[in-house]
Each structure stands twice: as structure tokens, then as C-alpha cells.
Amino acid sequence: MMNKFLNSIVVLIGLILIQGTNLTMQAQVMVSAKLDTSMMLIGDQTEFRMEATFPDSVLVGFPIFADTIIDKLEILNITNIDTQKVDDGLKLVQEYLVTSFDSGWYQIPPLNFTITYPKSGRVDTLQSVPTFFGVMTMPLDTANTNAIADIKKPMEAPITIQEILPIAGIGLGVAIFLFVVYLLYMKLARKKPIFVKKEKPKEPAHVIALRDLDLLQEQKLWQQGEAKAYYSRLTEIIRTYIEDRFSIPAMESTTDEIIDACRKSDELSNELKNDLFDTLTLADFVKFAKAITVATENETSLKFAYNFVLKTKPVEVLRDEDELRNEGKDIENKPSLGN
Questions:
Q1: How confident is the model over 267-293, as pLDDT tens digits?
Q2: At what angle do helices 295-312 and 205-219 cross, to 10 degrees?
Q3: Which option is the CATH number for 27-136: 2.60.40.1530, 2.60.40.2250, 2.60.40.290, 3.40.50.300?
Q4: What pTM, to 2 d.p., does this model score?
Q5: Does domain 205-312 have CATH number 1.20.120?
Q6: For residue 112, what are the contacts with CB-CB under 8 A and spacing of at least 6?
């Protein structure tokens, strides 16, 4: 009997020692979960902070949340757990950025932190203190009559050059595009040149011939022994004039063909026809038979060319103002076909 009593006392003392040790270890672990403020405006953001301080021989686990802490307290961002070294062990800190969109008073209930004792393998739970907070709406200034008002109409801003430039650029681009399309249509569809060069009015045949004869006289070709070049240029001037003045293809015709065509023309006198034949024939001898001419023949040929042009050029009829006025009156006084 005495031995059984002693054994019971020993077991009881052991249990008391073990329980005391656990209470001491649990007393060394401190946890907290609280908001930075107890009152917040609806839609505002604040920090929800969880902390745990414990010795190195203990492991502490934080509560895990998904989207909300409680029903009306939404989580916007979660930080990683921050581990800090303190004098008596370790300190863990984790922060949540939270907000609420429903006004009222709310309570964050006690949160369970798990405490693990690695040596004994025992797991315990330690709860935080409940937290109370309120969410209020924006108070209205009832004393100010302008506190509640209709939405203002959009203000009209003046048009700036930066707004006009893109529209003007688009318009200019469209105009250039249409102009290019029109040019292509004129070129391809209608087979017309895009840009029509305005031709200079052709000078009268006698003006061109007299100017060329003056230039030939200034060159003094036969005086420098260039008789062949002199007569080649002289006959070219005469042939060109005949072709432009009388529409005879003189540039492509022989001397005989030119003379035959001129003899059929009533605009040339027999003297001019004979002199023309003599001059063209002499030129052919110099150009093709290498005939040698004297100075008087060369000068006579040039004088004939001048004389031929001056006597066959078109005659301009000049009438005075009185003659034109009288002609107009005759036309007005002429009876019509119906009278």
C-alpha cells in the first residue's frame, strides 16, 4: 500500500512539472492581429498587421486568408512574412492592405496561431484578441446649399492649331490623291499628255529666211574658202523657205523637181523662176562637181536669195480706220434674206 501511494505521488509531481513547463513556454509566445485604425472612410485603404514573438525553440504558424479577412474587409495586397531577430527569440510580421465598401461596425474575431514544440512534437493553438472597427460614409455638409448639385456640363474648349493640323493634313492628302488619279485618268484612259507644252507660234517663213540669210552673210564662208559649205547653207535656206511658203516638198526634191513645181505656180514671175534655176544649178555644181566660183557669182547668189524672199513673201494689206468703219456700216445696211 505504501509503495502504491508513493508511486502516485511521483506521477502527480511529474505531471505538475510538465504542465508547468508547457505553461511557461506558452507564456513566452505572444501574438497579435489588429488594424492600423479603428475608424475608416468607405473605400479608404489601411493596414491589417499580424505579429508573433516567440523563442527559438518554438515554431509559429500564421492564419491564412484568400480574398477577405472577414466578409466586409477585402484584401488588396499581401506582403511576405518578415522575420526579425529580437533579444528573447524571433519576431514574425505580416501585413495586409485592406479596404471596405460597406459602412457599419465590424469585428475581426480571434484568429488562431498554431504553436509547435519540436522537442515534444506537441501542437497548440494561441488566439489573438478580437478587433473592432467602423466604416463610415462621407458626411454631407447640410449647412452649405451648394453641397449637393447637378453635374456640371462639359466646358467648351477653343480649337487649337494642334487639333486643326491633322484634319488639314488629311484634307491635303486626299486632294493630292484625287489630283494624281485625275492625271492618271487623263494619261491612260483618255490617252492625253498630262502636261501639255504650249507651243510657240511659228514665225512666218520669210522672217526665218531673212534672218538665216543675214547670219550666213555674217559668217563669210566663201571668203574663207568654204564655197561648198556656203552654197549648201544657201540652198538649204531657199529650199526651207519654198517648202514653208508654197507647201512644196523642196527639202526632199531635186533641183529639177523644184523648178517643175515652181513653174506651175502663178505666184512666181518667169524672171524669178529662171534666176532660181540658175542659183540652184550653180550650187549643185559647187557641191557635187567641185566647181570653182568667183566672188561676183557668190554675191549674186546671195542677192538673189534676198530678192526671191522679199518678192514672194505674203503681202499684208493695211486698211485705215475710215475704211473699216465704212465696211461695218455696209454690213449693217445690207438687207437680210427674209426681206
A1: 888 888 888 888 989 989 988 988 888
A2: 160
A3: 2.60.40.1530
A4: 0.39
A5: yes
A6: 63, 125, 126, 127
